[in-house]
Each structure stands twice: as structure tokens, then as C-alpha cells.
Design brief:
single chain; 182 residues; mainly beta; four-stranded antiparallel sheet; 2 helices
């Protein structure tokens, strides 16, 4: 059983822990061996401030007069993962692929984006780090309901975009009408 001490860096947590080899054979006086629990511990392994997986070779602690038959060191692997949480941001919807000579009116012009990822990364992002757009390539004049696309920084994942569709009215720009002056 690994003796782990400390806590990972803020925004990170311990996940799986493994020891290799997972079992060892002990040799020593029967009276001492009979009093031992079904496991032995390692020397302390610090995970203080860790932001990535740790792999440490460490000794096994045994009572005086007892030895480990295969060697007294094991490899302890501690998986360190970021703490995940979510955040909601409001982002402006951009237009892509609009044919030349056309205009588009979006409703709504902003959407809510729910993003999940490591706390450390979520705390640094702003709405400007998220790109929300409707791709109008291939759409003609008229009113269309289009699902917006989203691009977020690496390490983050989009849970949802609200609303799921944007109403887009594609039209020709208004032409000025001549005015008679007398």
C-alpha cells in the first residue's frame, strides 16, 4: 500500500494509484510475520504540488528482522488529473460564407456557451476566446434556422450552445429610391 502525502496543485486531483509489483513475499521469523496485517506500506511518496502523473521508486517498510524476498523497492504510479468544472459565457455570433452582395440578419446575435474543462484553464478564458459562427455557404435568400458552430481553446469542450439554432434572414441590401426635387 503506497503511503501518499500532500495534495496536488490547486485545480488538480489524485486519480488512480498503482504499485508494481502489487504483491511481495516477506521472509522473517514466523512470530513477527504472523502479527503483520495482509499488507505492507511504502515509504512516503509526496504528491504535493503535482500537475502531472508521478512515477516514483520507493522502499517498502517492514519490521526489524523481516526482509522482502524479491527486493525492497516498488514503483508507485499516481495519476494526476485536472479538476473539471463548467463555465457559461455569452459570445457574439459571427457570419461566415455569406455570398457577395447579400446581407444577413441574425436572431439572436449572441448565444450562451457552456464549456467544461480544467479549472485552471476555465478561469483564464473570456468570451473573446470562443468563436461562434453560422456558416451561410450554400444558403440563398430567405429565412433559415442554422445551428451555430463553436471553436474553443484546446483543452476545453463545449457542453451546449443556447439557443441551439439561430434564425438567419438573408436578403439583398435595400437600394435607395430616387427622390424628385422641385
Amino acid at each position: 500500500v503506497p503511503e501518499l502525502r500532500g495534495d496536488p496543485a490547486p485545480g488538480y486531483r489524485r486519480a488512480s494509484v498503482s504499485v508494481e509489483p502489487s504483491t511481495v513475499t516477506l521472509a522473517g521469523p514466523r512470530s513477527v510475520l504472523d502479527d503483520l496485517p495482509g499488507f505492507v506500506k511504502t515509504l512516503p511518496v509526496s504528491v504535493t504540488g503535482a500537475t502531472a502523473d508521478l512515477v516514483r521508486s520507493t522502499a517498502i517498510t517492514v519490521p526489524a528482522g523481516v526482509v522482502v524476498a524479491e527486493g525492497s523497492y516498488v514503483t508507485v504510479t499516481v495519476e494526476i488529473l485536472p479538476v473539471l468544472s463548467s463555465r457559461t459565457l455569452t459570445a457574439q455570433v459571427e457570419i461566415q460564407g455569406l455570398s457577395q452582395g447579400q446581407i444577413a440578419d441574425l436572431s439572436p446575435q449572441e448565444v450562451e456557451v457552456i464549456v467544461v474543462g480544467p479549472d485552471a484553464l476555465l478561469s483564464r478564458i473570456t468570451a473573446q476566446d470562443i468563436q461562434i459562427y453560422v456558416n451561410l455557404f450554400g444558403y440563398g435568400l430567405g429565412i433559415h434556422r442554422i445551428q451555430p458552430q463553436a471553436v474553443v481553446p484546446e483543452g476545453l469542450e463545449i457542453v451546449s450552445v443556447i439557443p441551439e439554432t439561430i434564425e438567419v434572414e438573408i436578403a439583398l441590401p435595400a437600394t435607395p429610391t430616387p427622390v424628385d426635387r422641385e
